[in-house]
Amino acid sequence: MSRYEVIIIGGGPAGLTAGLYTSRAGLKTLLVERGMFGGQIVNARQVDNYPGFPEGISGFELASLMHQQATKYGLETITAEVTAIKPGHTYNVITTEGNFEAEAVTIAAGSEYRKLGVPGEDKLLGRGVSYCATCDGFLFRDLDVAVVGGGDTAIADALELSEHASKVYIIHRRDQLRAGQVLQQLAFAQPKLRFIWDTVVDEVTGEVKVSGLRLRNVKTGETTNLQVAGVFVAIGLEPNSQRFANIVEMDETGHIKTNELMATSGPGIFAIGDIRKDSPRQVASAVGDGATAAMSAFKYLRERS
């Protein structure tokens, strides 16, 4: 079994930054990522709020630069899924590509899109149901689509889709948006956007592709049908934390509890990025988490030896 001083689970901005810092500090480090390096950020068409890029930068390019810089200093990476962490004198990290031993572990496993949980959603995934407007918006040129949600992501998605679709319906269970004021102003000024308030989706309809949505007004109970060719779900994220429930303490939403040094209830285990409790879920804060956790891991290992 290969042994490392630090194993990092997840290759988004938080994990890549942690790997950059631990590798530069001379710690033998392995980063395990189950998908694309960069995490959710690779789907962002444009990142305008990360310092150092006044003209913005695509999420894919930013992720590539982070990965390139982290591995430059000796960070080892593999593509695999971590299924469990087993405690002992050291931690045994179980993955789909074998088992690895670590003295310290940093969990940066991020989050996944929250689903509606209604009939037709899973069946029509990739056939009109999407969770990424940047990825799939161009497929709906001159068609009517819907966005479910009222936060920043939902409104940003709706504005993105307005560049392609003929009409974009925003379906929100409340009577006002939760998005920031700037996004709201842009949304209300965009003539292609239509707002459906106090409403939830009860079913995604269609046989081989999305043909519409069955809607329900939460105040009156009235049900209606809306004809659309696609639906983009933007109702939040779920932390990828279930496999760590037996080893670190979490809150009621499944986010891992940490202190200001990113330390969890498990000795030598740190949590960073979207998966930790009270994360701002921003690239800049994720990078800060990664640097903090790396320095905390270095101190932990030095005191342990």
Written account of the structure:
This protein is an alpha/beta fold and 305 residues long. 23% of the residues lie in helices and 28% in strands. It is built from six helices and 17 strands. The chain has helices at residues 13-24, 59-72, 133-136, 152-161, 181-189, 283-304, and strands at residues 2-9, 29-33, 76-79, 82-86, 91-95, 98-107, 111-113, 129-130, 144-148, 167-171, 193-196, 199-205, 212-217, 223-227, 230-233, 237-239, 269-271. The strands form four sheets. Strands 1, 2, 3, 4, 5, 6 and 17 form a seven-stranded mixed sheet that branches. α1 (13-24) packs parallel to α6 (283-304). It is elongated and about 65 Å long.
| Rg over C-alpha atoms, rounded to the nearest angstrom | 21 Å
* SSE succession: EHEHEEEEEEHEHEHEEEEEEEH
Measured as a percent range, the helix fraction is 10-25%
Number of extended strands: 17
What is the number of helical segments per DSSP (H or I, 4+ residues)? Answer: 6
Shape: elongated
Residue stretches low in confidence (pLDDT < 50, at least 5 long) are none
Mean pLDDT: 95
What would a concise description of this structure say?
This protein is of the alpha/beta class and 305 residues long.
How would you describe this structure in keywords?
305 residues; five-stranded parallel beta sheet; 28% strand
Record the SSE blueprint:
Elements: E1 2-9, H1 13-24, E2 29-33, H2 59-72, E3 76-79, E4 82-86, E5 91-95, E6 98-107, E7 111-113, E8 129-130, H3 133-136, E9 144-148, H4 152-161, E10 167-171, H5 181-189, E11 193-196, E12 199-205, E13 212-217, E14 223-227, E15 230-233, E16 237-239, E17 269-271, H6 283-304
